[in-house]
């Protein structure tokens, strides 16, 4: 018998001062049986960093050719493709060919090694942003994963303040690659 995904509900209040975007989102996240709480929370954080009414969670781990999060315009064209973790560079290049913009949020103890290995292939892509997230902080966020969650996400000057009713966590994604002109 196949294991089923676990459903998580999150209320996320986003205050993005950089983009002047302010909204409350009631989100449903499905955690694949092989997905960790850390990865689940990084997906939620990625949503907060790029929040938009049309941003959706993809199939993620269960489907290689689908983003962890993506956004389409009214014609169906993919305007934003977001992957979290340490994706295969071939899949990132494929995503860059399908989407206007691709963002990778790399995290984990081997994120630096992944970047060193992948950098040569990925630097050529003109529509790719790559950020590294602090491992200690992503592991702290993992401990906050519950079936029902409520967070405030404030983005200012590229940094994120991720807050619960009890605590706040400051995170500054480290830019590893930004397209020319950004």
Write a structural description:
This is YaeQ family protein. It comes from Derxia gummosa DSM 723. The strands form two sheets. The protein has a six-stranded mixed β-sheet with strand order 3-4-5-6-7-11. It has four helices and eleven strands; from the N terminus they run E-E-H-E-E-E-H-E-H-E-H-E-E-E-E. Helix 2 (89-98) links the parallel strand 5 and strand 6 (99-106). The longest helix has 13 residues, at 37-49. By secondary structure, it is of the alpha/beta class. It has one domain (6-177): Restriction endonuclease-like alpha-beta roll fold. The radius of gyration is 16 Å and the shape is globular. The protein has helices at residues 37-49, 89-98, 111-122, 135-142, and strands at 6-16, 21-31, 55-57, 69-72, 78-84, 99-106, 128-132, 148-156, 159-163, 168-171, 174-177. Helix 1 packs across helix 4.
Attribute tags:
five-stranded mixed sheet; 24% helix; YaeQ; Restriction endonuclease-like alpha-beta roll fold; YaeQ_sf; 182 residues; Restrct_endonuc-II-like; YaeQ family protein; single chain; 4 helices; six-stranded mixed sheet; 11 strands; alpha/beta
What's the short story on this structure?
This is YaeQ family protein. Pfam families: YaeQ. This protein is an alpha/beta fold and 182 residues long.
In terms of topology, how is this protein built?
Blueprint: E1 6-16, E2 21-31, H1 37-49, E3 55-57, E4 69-72, E5 78-84, H2 89-98, E6 99-106, H3 111-122, E7 128-132, H4 135-142, E8 148-156, E9 159-163, E10 168-171, E11 174-177
Parallel strand pairs: 1-8, 5-6, 6-7
Antiparallel strand pairs: 1-2, 3-4, 4-5, 7-11, 8-9, 9-10
Helix pairs in contact: 1-4
């Amino acid at each position: 018998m196949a294991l089923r995904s676990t459903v998580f509900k999150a209320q996320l209040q986003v205050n993005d001062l950089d983009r002047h975007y302010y909204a409350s989102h009631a989100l449903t996240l499905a955690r694949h049986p092989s997905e960790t709480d850390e990865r689940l929370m990084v997906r939620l954080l990625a949503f907060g960093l790029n929040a938009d009414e049309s941003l959706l969670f993809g199939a993620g781990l269960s489907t290689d050719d689908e983003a962890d999060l993506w956004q389409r315009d009214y014609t169906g064209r993919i305007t934003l493709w977001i992957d979290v973790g340490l994706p295969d560079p071939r899949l990132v290049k494929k995503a860059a060919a399908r989407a206007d913009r691709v963002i990778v949020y790399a995290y984990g103890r081997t994120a630096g090694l992944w970047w060193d290995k992948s950098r040569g292939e990925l630097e050529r892509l003109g529509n790719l942003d790559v950020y590294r997230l602090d491992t200690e902080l992503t592991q702290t966020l993992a401990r906050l994963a519950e079936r029902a969650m409520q967070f405030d996400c404030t983005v200012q000057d590229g940094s994120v303040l991720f807050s619960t009713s009890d605590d706040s966590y400051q995170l500054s994604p480290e830019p590893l690659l930004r397209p020319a002109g950004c």
